Amino acid sequence: MVQGILNSTTVPLLEQVVRFTEQRQKLLTGNIANIDTVGYKSRDLPVKKFQQALQDAISGREKQQATTGSLSSMSPSSSGQQSGGVDRYFPKELFEAKVADAQNITFQDGNNRSVERAMMEMRKNAAKQRFAIEVITSQLNMLQAVISERP
Fold first, then answer.
1. The whole model's pTM is what?
2. Which of 18, 58, 72, 101 has its CB surrounded by the most CB atoms within 10 Å?
3. What is the total count of domains within the chain?
């Protein structure tokens, strides 16, 4: 029952955002750690593909809600199917590192480093992760308030 309630919120989508940003933060940190490594190529996740998958998942949820009615009328079993549907939009390829496109010149040692770009991407990624976690936390707090019957 609780799983059905959670799946009827944006929590499953936000979980994917947190998962993606966590994996990306590890890669970006590795890029900075290897900034002086000869021949190292910066790696990243396919951000645009993830954003498209997220948009597709949102559109799919909206279509499902339109065909089944309001979320409150959904049975727990259909909510469980909805969660499985969210996962299908996020294949494991979205979470696999690829060599990042060079945004600047390649240095003679074969490295395509850019400290400024790496730091900027880390900050943007951390902000996205923080936002997703805060929204999940607020949704869970609202659910807890409803369960405990507090105003």
1. 0.77
2. 18
3. 1
